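stage 2 :: seqdesign
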């Protein structure tokens, strides 16, 4: 299969983000078939029962040490997995491993009031619902109509009965719902650099440095909206599937400047071997030193690239 070269501007920036000893694995990750990741949906079944069912059907399940509900199967078994009763019944959900990290680090609890501010297609939303055991209040916001209905269908199939979906722009939520939520997930719309596939030119055709800048502008407004909607003492998990510092540390630096001493960047409760500390400088600009507590997830043979940062509203 022919390989397409990654965008030149992206390639020029990457060595300033990724350490040289990690760069070969990162570059190789854009052109390989990774194992298919799945999450057991505890709203409908136990991990033991679904794993036993899949093993009996011949699936080669691999467990992950950081989650008792995350598993993978070889890429070659993807189609067969989507034809199982467990898949159709919503007892498992195909969700890449990096995506599963965000709700785990946010750690929503049963009975809390939680917001997913950019929720479609619903994988993280349904994961949050399962972590909350369908107890509490979970609001899921999506502004694009067709994605909104896909979100609703996925949450229905997953049995996320506590979730209420809202077709609206996330940038307006803060003014409508000030200081309402205990925890907020903002997996922000981004330039999707982690989804580049060198075998699929379409996966990169949308990308440009202008696109990165446009995304960063929108992300800053979404972050401010989320921050306004967060209760004092609440926690906000910000994530993207972009490498770009403008969309990650840069967007967060703007919020930190605005929020002043009411915001704290928290240490992540745990880290994996492919987590890098957040950057504290980029392109001649300094970022708050506390952003080193964020994590840039480096893609490898099993995980996609990702960015994660956990904030606390002190008052």
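stage 2 :: out
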């Amino acid at each position: 299969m022919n390989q397409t070269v990654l965008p030149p501007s992206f390639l020029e920036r990457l060595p300033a983000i990724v350490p040289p000893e990690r760069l070969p694995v990162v570059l190789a990750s854009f052109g390989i078939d990774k194992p298919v990741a799945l999450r057991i949906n505890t709203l409908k079944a136990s991990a033991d029962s679904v794993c036993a069912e899949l093993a009996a059907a011949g699936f080669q399940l691999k467990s992950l040490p950081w989650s008792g509900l995350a598993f993978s199967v070889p890429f070659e078994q993807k189609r067969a997995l989507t034809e199982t009763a467990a898949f159709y019944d919503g007892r498992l959900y195909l969700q890449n491993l990096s995506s599963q990290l965000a709700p785990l680090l946010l750690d929503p609890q049963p009975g809390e009031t939680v917001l997913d501010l950019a929720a479609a297609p619903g994988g993280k939303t349904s994961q949050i619902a399962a972590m909350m055991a369908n107890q509490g209040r979970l609001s899921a916001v999506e502004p694009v109509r067709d994605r909104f209905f896909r979100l609703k269908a996925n949450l229905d199939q997953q049995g996320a009965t506590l979730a209420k979906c809202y077709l609206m722009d996330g940038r307006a939520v803060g003014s409508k719902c000030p200081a309402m939520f205990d925890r907020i997930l903002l997996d922000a719309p981004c330039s999707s650099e982690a989804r580049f596939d060198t075998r699929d030119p379409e996966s990169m055709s949308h990308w440009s440095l202008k696109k990165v800048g446009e995304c960063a502008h929108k992300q800053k407004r979404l972050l401010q909206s989320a921050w306004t909607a967060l209760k004092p003492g609440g926690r906000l998990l910000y994530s993207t599937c972009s490498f770009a510092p403008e969309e990650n540390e840069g967007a967060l630096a703007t919020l930190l400047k605005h929020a002043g001493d009411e915001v704290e960047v928290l240490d992540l409760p745990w880290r994996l071997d492919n987590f890098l500390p957040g950057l504290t400088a980029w392109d001649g600009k300094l970022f708050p030193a506390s952003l080193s507590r964020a994590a840039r997830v480096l893609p490898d043979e099993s995980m996609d690239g990702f960015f994660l940062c956990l904030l606390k509203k002190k008052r």
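stage 3 :: structure notes
- The mean pLDDT is 97.
- DSSP finds eleven helices and 15 strands in the chain.
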